[in-house]
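[Meeting: bench + compute handoff]

Bench side (C.D.) handed over the final construct sequence. Compute side (W.E.) agreed to return the predicted structure before the next meeting so the bench team could plan truncations. Sequence as handed over:
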Amino acid sequence: MGLGTLTKPAAVFLDRDGVINRNVMNPVTLAWEAPLSVQSFVLTPNALAVLSALRQAGFLLFLVSNQPNYAKGKTSLEVLEAIHQHLLKLLARQGIEFTAFYYCLHHPHGVVPSHSGPCACRKPAPFFLLRARDEFGLDMERSWMVGDRASDIACGQAAGVHTIRVRNQQGDAAVTGDEPSAEFQVDSLQAAAVIILTACCGVTPTL
């Protein structure tokens, strides 16, 4: 059954950093983190072609990303907005439409009072996925969450969607301890899309 014959639309929820774009090594923290400038924002291989294929198959696309660097005092809101606008331009050049972009700017241990402390929207909470479900009438049983962290998988599971974990640059997608286990683990967004498109369309796509 194709997506077009369903009463409700299906969605692909995507984490951003480590999935759509590469993480960047922060020389201060010595950790792989979200880019802190437009210049360091680099898409993962074939990201635009993959997103286009998902849209052409009928999926609604949603970006769901924790972005705590302002709350942590590492950057400004203006820089975060500039990076988002850069992503929008890259998508627009390929005619790729996202239904909504959801960013959580909070962090429980931040240094900026207005964005610190507990919040409802930070993954692993399913806040944004459930909001999208209610606003756009989504069929969650046919929807997917794709992310590179345990919090992405826990978020997807709490919202009742299928889950795929992408191994990031550190190759640390293996489940440890009490981390939730995704339905699938893959090495790239492209490999995740093959799984999604095969499941929805019954034919393995060439991406």
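W.E. noted at the follow-up: The mean pLDDT is 92. C.D. will use this when planning the next construct.
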